[in-house]
Structures are given as structure tokens and as C-alpha cells.
């Protein structure tokens, strides 16, 4: 399934309920609703988004094959005003194409607004806007870390279950221009063929172990070679050698993932062959981290837009010239400090 590289090509492929979706989007992004206060979405509007988006997710494969240009974002975690800042910097759909790497709910104050805007954009622009599943798009996790309580307090438990049914249908991974592998967590010792991802059945819950679990839960680790135990108590950690073998086996250039707080919003690993992107600045109000968004242009040049908690922005760039290796002259980010994990 190839996405049209030009957003205008999507014009004749939009949802048949454009008017409803446009009204919901307008409500979510209008200036008076950008102040961090709950937005009064009707339950029937939310259910409409869930039903429509679920059908679209199931009509598209678990492993998306996408084309640049593309904006790639990491964890958002209910930080709705920061999500709006990302769109302000990168351009609201359909002026730019987006891929989000998961973890839209929990911990932040506005998980409902966050996931609803993402689902609305998916319904409105199904061939240009993509969201992958994160480990928090799982009932057993978001039952504990905030999303369940937010749904119960503002609406009802039945609506939470409806969201979870949508989460069970989300795609798992994406490959951009045959060279950039994207998933929420990381690699898996069970992954020997991309066909394994394509054959993951949906709807499905996230199992406690195995390929799907690893793709959503695993982490890179500087201090090891091969596979190691994960401090999360789930899945594995993997060394730079695993990244190198993976890229060589599948003729890829870069692994792009999220799942961990990193100080500058993005951080390289394994000689710039893996990058972690985290898009929630000042995470939980406890970390003094920046957020980042990676822009991949049609030549696979990758640049980073930074969301500072203090509203500052700066940029960095790396290159995948002609779909080759990352430019080793790109400016490096500081090493991970203290292995901050979420």
C-alpha cells in the first residue's frame, strides 16, 4: 500500500463524511480550545471517529509502506497543547504528511483530545496521515496510567472500551521509501521476515511476549551486545550489533523509534543507524526534556524540529543521500543521561 506522495492526490479519496469530520477538527483546533482545558466533544462525535477510523485501519496493512516527504513524531502522551504546537511547526494536515509512532494516551491531562484529533485527521486524510500502535495503546496499560480514569470521569467506561477496540486495529510498523524502518519500541529476536509483521492478525491485544510485544516494548542499550534483559520487565534490550545486522539483512538505512524520554527530543544510537524520537516536551511536568519531530524530505534528508518547554525552537539535520547511510558529519546529540525510561 503506497501513499500518494503529493497530498493533493488524496483529494478524491477522503471520507464520505467530510462535513462531520471537518466540524470536529475545527472544534478541536480553534484558538479558544488551545488553553489546556477540556474540550466539549459529544460522545456521538467520538464514537463516529472510532467507528470510521477503525474501518480505515483494518483496510490498511499492519506494516505500512510509505513514501517521503513525511513528518515523523514520537510519544505525545495526552499533552494536547504540545501536539498542536507540533502541527503549527510542521503544518496542519494535509499541508504535510505525518507518521506518529504511538503512545498517544496516558499520563497527560488531555488524552481524549489528543487521540480524537489524531483519529479525525486519519479519517479526513486516510492516505496521508498515519499513526502506529504504542505500548500504551493497550487496555492493560492505559487502564492503569490515566486514560481509563479520564474516560470514566469525562464520559463512561464503555467509551474507553470503544477506544481500546480501535487501538487493537492500529498498524504496527512502517517502512519509508524502503529504507527507514519505523516502529514504537524496537527490534525483536523473532523478526526474520517482514512478512511476519504483515501477517499479524487484527484486531489483537498486545501479548506478554513475542514479536508484537517486542516491536512495542524493546529498547536499545549502549552497554550490551546482542540481546539483554529489559528493566521494564517486558521484552528485551538490544545492542548496536543487533541494529547493524537488522539493517544489513533488510537493506535498510535507519531505524526510527520512540518509547523513551530523551533530553533533546531525539537521540542517535549505533553510529546514527537508529534514532529515538520523543515529542512530549517537559514530559509529565517532571522532565526538562525537549520534544522533537523528524522531517524526511523526498531525498531522504532528515531534519529535526525541536519543541522546547520554553517555546524555543532549533534545528539539526542529517542526510540519507540517495537512500544511503546517514551522513556521519551531522551534528551529534549528547549521550543518553541516566537512561531515562518511561
From TrEMBL:
Q: According to the UniProt entry, what is the EC number of this protein?
A: 3.1.3.16
Q: Which reaction does it catalyse?
A: O-phospho-L-seryl-[protein] + H2O = L-seryl-[protein] + phosphate; O-phospho-L-threonyl-[protein] + H2O = L-threonyl-[protein] + phosphate
- One MF annotation (Gene Ontology) recorded for this entry: protein serine/threonine phosphatase activity
What GO CC terms are in its UniProt record?
Answer: cytoplasm; nucleus
Q: What is this protein called?
A: Serine/threonine-protein phosphatase
Domain of life from the UniProt record: Eukaryota
Q: Which cofactor does it need?
A: Mn(2+)
State the similarity comment.
Belongs to the PPP phosphatase family.
Alphabetized, the UniProt keywords read: Hydrolase, Manganese, Metal-binding, Protein phosphatase
Tell me what organism the protein belongs to: Rhodosorus marinus
The record's section on Gene3D superfamilies has: 3.60.21.10
PANTHER family cross-referenced by the UniProt entry: SERINE/THREONINE PROTEIN PHOSPHATASE, SERINE_THREONINE-PROTEIN PHOSPHATASE
What Pfam family does this protein match (any one)? Metallophos
Describe the location of the Serine/threonine specific protein phosphatases domain by residue ranges. 132-137
Q: Which InterPro entries match?
A: Calcineurin-like_PHP, Metallo-depent_PP-like, PP1_catalytic_subunit, Ser/Thr-sp_prot-phosphatase, STPPase_N
Amino acid at each position: 500500500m503506497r501513499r500518494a506522495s503529493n497530498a493533493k492526490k488524496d483529494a478524491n479519496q477522503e471520507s464520505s463524511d467530510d462535513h462531520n469530520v471537518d466540524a470536529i477538527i475545527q472544534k478541536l483546533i480553534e484558538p479558544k480550545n488551545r488553553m489546556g482545558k477540556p474540550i466539549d466533544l459529544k460522545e456521538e462525535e467520538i464514537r463516529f471517529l472510532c467507528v470510521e477510523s477503525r474501518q480505515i485501519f483494518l483496510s490498511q496493512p499492519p506494516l505500512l509502506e510509505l513514501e517521503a516527504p513525511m513528518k515523523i513524531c514520537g510519544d505525545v502522551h495526552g499533552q494536547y497543547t504540545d501536539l498542536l504546537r507540533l502541527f503549527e511547526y510542521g503544518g496542519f494536515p494535509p499541508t504535510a504528511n505525518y507518521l506518529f509512532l504511538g503512545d498517544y494516551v496516558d499520563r497527560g491531562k488531555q488524552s481524549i483530545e489528543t487521540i480524537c484529533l489524531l483519529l479525525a485527521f486519519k479519517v479526513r486524510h486516510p492516505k496521508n496521515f498515519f499513526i502506529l500502535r504504542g505500548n500504551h495503546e493497550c487496555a492493560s496499560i492505559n487502564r492503569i496510567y490515566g486514560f481509563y480514569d479520564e474516560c470514566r470521569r469525562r464520559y463512561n467506561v464503555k467509551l474507553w472500551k470503544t477506544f481500546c477496540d480501535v487501538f487493537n486495529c492500529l498498524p504496527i510498523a512502517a517502512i519509508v521509501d524502503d529504507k527507514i524502518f519505523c516502529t514504537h519500541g524496537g527490534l525483536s529476536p523473532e523478526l526474520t521476515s517482514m512478512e511476519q509483521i504483515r501477517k499479524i492478525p487484527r484486531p489483537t491485544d498486545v501479548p506478554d511476549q513475542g514479536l508484537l510485544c517486542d516491536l512495542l516494548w524493546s529498547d536499545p542499550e549502549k552497554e550490551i551486545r546482542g540481546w539483554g534483559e529489559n528493566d521494564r520487565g517486558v521484552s528485551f534490550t538490544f545492542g548496536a550489533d543487533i541494529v547493524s545486522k537488522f539493517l544489513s539483512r533488510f537493506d535498510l538505512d535507519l531505524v526510527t523509534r520512540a518509547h523513551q524520554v530523551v533530553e533533546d527530543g531525539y537521540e542517535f544510537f549505533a553510529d546514527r543507524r537508529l534514532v529515538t524520537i520523543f515529542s512530549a516536551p517537559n514530559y509529565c511536568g517532571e522532565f526538562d526534556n525537549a520534544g522533537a519531530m523528524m522531517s524526511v524530505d523526498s531525498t531522504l534528508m532528515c531534519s529535526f524540529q525541536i519543541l522546547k518547554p520554553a517555546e524555543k525552537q532549533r534545528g539539526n539535520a542529517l542526510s540519507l543521500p540517495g537512500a544511503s547511510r546517514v551522513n556521519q558529519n551531522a551534528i551529534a546529540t549528547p549521550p543518553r543521561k541516566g537512561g531515562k525510561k518511561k
